[in-house]
Please model this.
Amino acid sequence: MHILGTGSYAPERILTNHDLEAMVATSDTWIRERTGIRERRIAAEGEVTSDMAVAAALKALAMAETDAADLDAIIVATISPDMPMPACAAIVQAKLGAHKAFAFDLSAACAGSLYGMTIADQFIRTGSAKRILVIGAELLSRLVDWTDRNTCILFGDAAGALVLGPSPDPDRGLLSAHLHTDGTMVPSLCIPGGGSRHPQSAEVLEHSLHKIAMNGREVYKFAVRVLPEALNEAFAANGVVAGDIDHIVSHQANLRIVESVLDRVGIPMEKCWLNLDRYGNTSSASLPISLDEANRAGRLKPGDLVAMMAIGAGMAWGSALMRW
Ligand code: UT7
Model:
């Protein structure tokens, strides 16, 4: 499987750290020093997740010179769909006119696009699909408790999309992917209400159980432990070492997490495409947006070895190695 096209979209409205100073007890300095984030994008009123997904998808389809009608499948990785049922992917399918494609959502939070890419790879390898659109789209500003400074400073809205198909060259494309989950970490990062455990109710609203709840320190410690393991797993599976890697494309939740992980595996930060200063943590959108930006900037040259990593609620995480 190879990436035939990339696309991304971020809403116009910018919310800066200084804007947040007026909303919660925080400071631009604290946010920059602890996370690396300067600003994030916020969806317009009336704009929904599928709108952002479609905007990113159209760019990826144009680059891949693929007609939406020729898509075999659409996978939307999201924790913030337009509505609980049906899948956001079904809405995207209709908006794109991709009538041949089966479409479903995938819930693996910030690791969603990596999971989606890996699933798409299986369909493409077996020959049962030739063109799959994988989208990471998140409208987190509507899932954030804007009175909770532990979380509201981190997240942003955006979408990224990848058009995947068989590799035109057997030496290029996805070499391997390595997915993991540790469900014992669920309490550390979740949206406790709005599902079968705590259906929508006045109590859920009163206690903000329908908003993101996170123990940041636990998530941080977990991430800097398992991500180096996942990267090393990908290197070992392909007989390469850290020095062979040309680029790192990573989910971006916190600059310090990326720095610590790359330091542990021995890859210089210059090899990593960074954009969380501009977008914050956009969950499943983060990885495909980074791929799209690095790709459009001409950073990824044919034959380059690209390592990817992502981690999010679940905890769900993984790595992948691709020969661009
Ligand atoms: O996409 C995957 C999901 N999420 C993540 O990967 C997030 C992982 N975690 C993190 O990125 C970091 O843990 C945070 C950025 C969330 C927090 O940074 P930290 O260095 O772990 O800070 P902390 O939670 O240990 O808090 C340190 C202090 C506390 O004050 P005291 O108890 O030392 O007096 C917090 O109350 O900073 C305080 N604090 C803040 N101060 C100003 C927490 N949030 C803020 C804030 N502004 N926004």
